[in-house]
């Protein structure tokens, strides 16, 4: 949703905003809760936003009489009326026709006190534009100001003090600024370490001193830290001193000179930030590589300014930044602090508004070249979300946006925690280590980034199963399905040489096919994937069906010392018959965690686990999404993100299917060390997308003895060259491309399936000589999207490879009827009469698999 010219992502407060700007926390803690129906608060322009207003009372007191007011852009009235509660709950709605923010205010009276509760939403925020462009001479003006600053020697004066923390050196620092003013701040660094990354912390609005911990805490983490005041004031005076300044010369300081760009109070403030960066660069203990700036509110404003003004900033982090889109009221949106648009008393209003364009954070944002992290409160009335997005959308560098749907301007009850986590668990640790800023692209952004690497503007649309009349409706006419009937010959090498012996297949052809699937389809596993250490979390005795069993729950901890702020753990359970006297054959199932399965009704009859255990085997379930999410947003997280250190994928890098198969291989590593599991007799099984993963795992890890593939469809056993149901374009599109390598996208434009060097039958053939059972449900119940016939055809087309190796193939290319088991060979097929499940096919599979799996007599029922 948050697309831009370059990648832009949506995913402990850094301090209070300053007494002069604080919104009463009590107002936010009231019992009136106002929220849109979508947890993220993010919508498309043109949508109508439903809201729920709840009187959250811990007494029997009913909801009071209340009124509501919708404000587009936080300013323009878009509906009002009385709130009608039923059992302390009311429902409201309002449209957002254009890209904008929407604020809902609910007001009521308690005694003599009027209270207001707010909720926020935003529509198509990536399309919100500033109210005005930068002045034509914006760059020339600021180049002149930087030159004026350069003409003034900085003369840094450091006074060493006790920072209050062992292992940290601390100084107060003063430097000269323009026109006889000074910069005051504090500098801290770890005592150990010769070359350090540098961090500039800039402050929120108000008149106050600096707390040592603001610099010392970051220094203790390994940063050369400079923290400066926005004012020409000492940093360590009693509170009374700052109160006097606030009531006297610095009263409403943000309005000083706001009608003259040469006299604006923000002129020296902005230049002090620039000088602070120059000072950090000049220090011999700076590592010469990392220069980060961060701040909140007015500090966020200064952050955007600094990153836009100074070309050497390498990363910027701004929480609820002020000072953006200063002319917002001219287009009906609420302005942000310092609200110059309306601060015109006794001044020329036109001059004030023209001056604001030179100090607008949005205009500096357009000049930022460093990765930037932004936190935006959706019900913020001090720095309204539309103003922040207007600025953020100008940034041409990678930008990660963290919408804060329940946050105003303050961090009340953890409302800003998602941003804080991203700063302290993601960005700062990575940057400190010299890593790039960890990327958190949305699915469409990651998709666009791959297309850009391929030089492709757009792809052909996939089949749309929702509208049979659509031009791109799926084809379910078998007469039109085989548009590319000529399949690649699995037994012909890339140079055209026939493969006539098993040795030639093993030595050359299989490796060629594997290379194609790795490079073009599923991606490569990096060479340096960290090791996995298995931990048994618990061992329990239980009963499944009528059988007493022993179950172990395990966690596979992936070593993350090379990238310590991304933790990856594989969730695995292993269950074996309690009476087993030795290792038993085991089925490894790609599945869901038990806590999720418990939420859904269970089918009648024995479960697949009960059937397998009754057969004398063990069962194991690996949860793929525990170590790699089933979405594109997760491509910079999980095991893929850990190995890439949070960077976006290259074209041949692995997708989720290969990552899930990697996890299965790590489970196999564990089985080889578990005396309860016969690791030479492990079957791997999965349904749907996990059926795809079964084939990938079997193809690339020859330790799996048998494969049971359920309704795998495109990306699994279905032939790509068939146009029936799901198409290549669907796999390459926004909803599924994360399963595949980036290179796969080109087959949805400009190339087609006919250009593919291999097809699904060769993925099945890579499993040889190990037996594979391919299954599906009825097209009348399961639907035809997965193309049951196309999977059967691929299984049949893999048969020549099995036969070359002295095995038996499927034995037929005639499509069988439902409930007919084709199981005379080492490739088997069955289509049951039910829906999207393997459950009805388990008895037939187990009967067939008994040819290959030997069950110890001690556990035979």
TrEMBL record:
The keyword ATP-binding does not apply. Keywords: Hydrolase, Serine esterase, Signal. Pfam families: AXE1 (PF05448), GCE_fung (PF22244). Residues 652-806 form the 4-O-methyl-glucuronoyl methylesterase-like domain. SUPFAM superfamilies: alpha/beta-Hydrolases. GO terms for biological process: polysaccharide metabolic process. The active site is at residues 297, 380, 409. InterPro entries: AB_hydrolase_fold, AXE1_dom, CE7, GCE-like_dom. Residues 129-416 form the Acetyl xylan esterase domain. Residues 1-29 form the signal peptide. GO terms for molecular function: carboxylic ester hydrolase activity. Residues 459-480 are annotated as: Disordered. PANTHER family: CEPHALOSPORIN-C DEACETYLASE (PTHR40111). This is Acetylxylan esterase. It comes from Synoicihabitans lomoniglobus. The lineage of its organism: Bacteria, Pseudomonadati, Verrucomicrobiota, Opitutia, Opitutales.
């Amino acid at each position: 949703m948050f697309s831009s010219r370059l990648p832009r992502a949506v995913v402990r407060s850094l301090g209070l905003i300053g007494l002069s700007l604080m919104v009463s926390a009590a107002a936010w803690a009231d019992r009136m809760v106002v929220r849109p129906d979508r947890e993220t608060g993010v919508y498309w322009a043109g949508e109508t936003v439903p809201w729920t207003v709840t009187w959250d009372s811990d007494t029997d007191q009913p909801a009071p009489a209340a009124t509501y007011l919708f404000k587009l852009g936080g300013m323009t009235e878009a509906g009002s009326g009385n709130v009608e509660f039923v059992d302390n709950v009311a429902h409201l709605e309002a449209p957002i026709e254009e890209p904008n923010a929407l604020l809902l205010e609910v007001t009521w009276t308690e005694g003599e006190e009027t209270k207001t509760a707010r909720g926020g939403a935003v529509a198509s925020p990536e399309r919100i534009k500033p109210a005005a462009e930068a002045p034509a001479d914006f760059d020339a003006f600021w180049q002149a100001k930087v030159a004026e600053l350069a003409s003034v020697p900085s003369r840094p004066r450091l006074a060493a003090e006790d920072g209050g923390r062992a292992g940290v050196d601390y100084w107060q620092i003063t430097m000269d600024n323009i026109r006889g003013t000074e910069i005051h701040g504090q500098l801290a660094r770890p005592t150990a370490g010769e070359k350090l990354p540098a961090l500039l912390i800039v402050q929120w609005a108000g008149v106050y001193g600096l707390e040592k911990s603001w610099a010392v805490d970051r220094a203790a983490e390994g940063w050369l830290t400079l923290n400066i005041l926005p004012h020409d004031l000492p940093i360590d005076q009693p509170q009374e001193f700052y109160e006097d300044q606030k009531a006297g010369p610095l009263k409403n300081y943000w309005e000083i000179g706001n009608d003259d760009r040469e006299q604006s109070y923000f002129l020296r403030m902005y230049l002090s930030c620039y000088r602070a960066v120059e000072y950090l660069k000049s220090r011999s203990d700076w590592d010469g590589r990392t220069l980060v700036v961060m701040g909140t509110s007015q500090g966020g404003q200064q952050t955007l300014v600094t990153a836009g003004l100074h070309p050497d900033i390498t990363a910027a982090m701004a929480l609820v930044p002020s000072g953006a889109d200063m002319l917002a009221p001219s287009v009906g949106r609420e302005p942000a602090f310092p609200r110059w648009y309306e601060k015109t008393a006794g001044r020329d209003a036109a001059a004030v508004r023209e001056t604001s364009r030179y100090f607008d954070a949005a205009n500096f944002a357009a000049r930022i070249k460093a990765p930037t992290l932004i936190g935006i409160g959706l019900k913020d009335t001090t720095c309204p979300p539309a103003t922040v997005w207007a600025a953020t959308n100008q940034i041409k560098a990678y930008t990660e946006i963290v919408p804060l749907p329940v946050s105003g301007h303050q961090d009340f009850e953890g409302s800003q925690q998602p941003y804080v986590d991203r700063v302290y668990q993601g960005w700062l640790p990575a940057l400190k280590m010299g890593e790039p800023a960890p990327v958190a692209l949305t699915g469409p952004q990651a998709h666009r980034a791959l297309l850009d690497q391929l030089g492709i503007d757009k792809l052909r649309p996939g089949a749309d199963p929702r509208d049979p009349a659509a031009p791109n409706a799926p084809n379910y006419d078998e007469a039109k399905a085989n548009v590319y009937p000529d399949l690649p010959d699995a037994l012909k090498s890339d140079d055209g040489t026939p493969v006539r012996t098993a040795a030639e297949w093993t030595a050359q052809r299989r490796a060629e096919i594997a290379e194609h699937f790795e490079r073009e389809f599923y991606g490569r596993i990096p060479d340096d994937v960290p090791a996995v250490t298995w931990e048994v979390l618990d061992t329990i005795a239980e009963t499944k069906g009528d059988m007493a069993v022993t179950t172990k729950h395990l966690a596979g901890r992936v070593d993350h010392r090379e990238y310590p702020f991304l933790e990856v753990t594989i969730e695995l359970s292993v269950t074996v018959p309690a009476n087993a006297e030795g290792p038993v054959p085991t089925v490894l199932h790609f599945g869901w965690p038990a806590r999720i399965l418990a939420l859904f009704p269970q089918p009648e009859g024995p479960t697949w686990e009960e059937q397998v255990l009754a057969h004398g085997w063990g069962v194991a379930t690996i949860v793929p999404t525990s170590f790699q999410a089933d979405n594109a947003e997760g491509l910079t997280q999980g095991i893929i993100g850990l190995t890439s250190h949070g960077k976006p994928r290259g074209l041949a890098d692995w997708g989720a299917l290969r990552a899930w198969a990697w996890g299965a291989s790590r489970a196999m590593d564990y089985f080889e060390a578990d005396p309860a599991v016969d690791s030479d007799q492990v079957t791997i099984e999965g349904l749907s997308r996990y059926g795809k993963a079964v084939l990938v795992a079997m193809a690339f890890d020859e330790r799996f003895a048998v494969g049971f593939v359920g309704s795998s469809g495109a990306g699994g056993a279905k032939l790509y060259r068939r146009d029936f149901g799901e198409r290549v374009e669907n796999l390459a599109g926004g909803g599924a491309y994360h399963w595949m390598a980036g290179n796969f996208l080109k087959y949805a434009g400009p190339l087609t399936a006919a250009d593919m060097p291999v097809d699904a039958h060769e993925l099945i053939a890579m499993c040889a000589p190990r037996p594979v059972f391919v299954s599906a449900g009825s097209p009348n119940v399961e639907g035809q999207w997965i193309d049951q016939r196309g999977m059967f055809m691929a299984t049949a087309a893999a048969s020549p490879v099995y036969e070359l190796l002295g095995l038996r193939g499927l034995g037929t290319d005639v499509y069988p009827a439902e409930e007919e088991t084709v199981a005379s060979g080492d490739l088997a097929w069955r289509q049951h009469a039910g829906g999207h499940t393997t459950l009805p096919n388990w008895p037939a599979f187990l009967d067939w698999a008994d040819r290959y799996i030997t069950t110890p007599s001690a556990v035979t029922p």
